[in-house]
Every structure is written in structure tokens, then in C-alpha cells.
Amino acid sequence: MKIYVETSIPSYYHELRTDPEIVVLKNWTQHWWDFKREEFDIFTSEAVIRELENGDYPTKADALSLLKDIPILVIEPPVAEIVEAYIQHHLMPANPAGDALHLALASYYRCDFLLTWNCKHLANANKFAHVQRLNVLLGLYNPRLVTPLEFLDEEGL
Question: Which of 11, 38, 51, 152 is most buried (most C-beta within 10 Å)?
Fold first, then answer.
């Protein structure tokens, strides 16, 4: 099974904030990465690398190093067309380098899952049907949009 790892995963793995809800997300992310990741073929993209590099935060080097051995999905010309379709259909915000690009890459490369903590635009149950309809219309695969929590057992909770 193929998983596309979006920017929020390496970010939360090395999160420093101490609010209880952030610590929980960090712990779930670390448990998935440390104990469940090996069960999958994981991929990321240059878009994720760029987002991490452009951020201004103290754990940037750690977040980037987490992805150093992860295969990179190339942004082929059809991916840009998919991004444009997502934006035109109001599926994703009008930022071609953001969430629409992550979803387009996961769909184009037929990833089984897009792993994210972005529950506003990606792992959002209110958007699932819209994503599925548009991907079917575009002849694309429908990755499941999930958080690390969905892969954890009692041990990781």
C-alpha cells in the first residue's frame, strides 16, 4: 500500500508546542512513523520539501531530515492540470503550491492514502464526496485522506 506523506506529518513529528492537543497529535504522529510506517511504501514530493524549507521554525532541519530517504514523486505536467481543476471546482484553496498539489500528486500516482493532519482541506469528511466525484470525473484514483490516528491500534493511543 502506498502512502503520500504531506507536510504536516514531519512538522508534527518534531513539534515543540506543549498544548495538550498538540502533544497528542505529535505522539500519534511519532508512533505511526516509528512503528507503523514500515508496513507501507511511503512517498512525499518536492512540494512538501519546499514547504518545510520555506517555513520559519526551530525544528526545520529535523523535519527535513525525517524525509531524506523517502522517495519523491515528480510533479509531472498532468499534475498541474489536476491542480487547476481542483481549484476551478472549488475543491481546494486557490494556492497551486498547497493542498491541491498534495491531493493531485496522491491521486495521479495512485496512492492508497494521503496522510495528513490538515483536517480543514484534506482529511475532512465534508469534502470526501466532492473529492471522489471530481476525481472520477477526471479519471483519477481516489486516495483515502487520513490522519495517523486511523492507523494506530490500542498500543499507539
Answer: 11
Residues 130-147: tens digit of each pLDDT: 899 999 999 999 999 999
Number of domains in the chain: 1
CATH number at residue 87: 3.40.50.1010
- Range of 89's domain? 2-156
**Which residue is it, cell 498541474?**
80
Q: Cβ of 112: how many Cβ atoms within 10 Å?
A: 16
Residues in contact with 128: Cβ distance below 8 Å, sequence separation at least 6, in sequence order: 145
The predicted model scores a pTM of: 0.93
DSSP assignment of 114-148 equals EE-S-TTTTS-HHHHHHHHHHHHHHT----EEE-G
